[in-house]
């Protein structure tokens, strides 16, 4: 919980979790003031069969993120079995996710972790076709691996969010004051060329909502992508783009969505993201997977989270899995 820098910090203690966890489990939860050593042993002696003990934040020790073997061994000492149900940290080789498995057998996946793997790994390795990936967000650089990897599997890829302006500039189009990664222009050209060579339909917005400043009360207008005025920045996809994306999704049997279409935190620039969320929520004959982070926040804000096939709990972990990377916290388990 959090990123404590120099040992224990009260604001990162797990005490607030105890009442909610007790409520969810329907029984009192004990809490240790450490995650290793004497405080844990003392609490263990108080326990009877069926009781639950919550250990203190493992990040109070630098050894956690360093995956220190001795620390991992201390974490494992009181236990007989290790269950990892934290998909959101499975992409990190830390003591509590990877190191501890060397001292506990069986080390297994929990129900949530298993579900994440079934959906995300299953969708990528053996998707029902046509398969479409919707990739949004602000920067191409954070999604290069995902786009590149999905080129091998997808029939269609929709690009949205701030990263589209790097693609536009690479095409020689005006982008005004929109976000652009100047050092990724050649990469954008390469990705477009690769999609064409592989017969993947790469869909970029044809119109955008532009604003005269980055603010919820900015002046806005809708323009075609070849007419973005100087000094204005694109903050959402336009109505023609929404219609085009909805049409492209029409026959899809698997859709993975990672990254919003615009700055949905501001109501004026949420239409594109919410329209895609609404469309996916009505695709009953399609596996719809929301891949973590801002996309999850968007479908929740749109009120359609319960209509999706699967909502991933891990931003970084889901991205790495979609890239085809092996997650250390999963690879370390001796039973899955």
Pairing-aware structural class of the strands and helices? alpha/beta
Q: How large a portion of the residues is in β-strands, by DSSP E?
A: 5-15%
Query: If strands are numbered along the chain, what order do they take across the biggest sheet?
Result: 7-6-5-11-12-13
- The 3D shape can be described as elongated
Instruction: State the helix count.
Output: 13
Give me the CATH architecture of the largest domain, please. 3-Layer(aba) Sandwich
Would you give an account of this structure?
The chain has about 325 residues and is α/β, with parallel strands linked by helices. The chain folds into two domains: about 1-60, no CATH class; about 125-315, 3-Layer(aba) Sandwich (Rossmann fold), CATH 3.40.50. Helices cover about 35% and strands about 15% of the residues. It has helices spanning about 15-25, 40-45, 60-65, 70-75, 110-125, 145-150, 165-170, 185-200, 240-250, 270-280, 295-300, 315-320, 330, and strands spanning about 30, 50-55, 80-85, 105-110, 130-135, 155-160, 200-205, 205-210, 220-225, 235, 255-260, 285-290, 310. Strands 7-6-5-11-12-13 form a six-stranded parallel β-sheet, sandwiched between helices. A three-stranded antiparallel β-sheet has the order 9-8-10. Strands 1-2 form a two-stranded parallel ribbon. The radius of gyration is 23 Å and the shape is elongated.
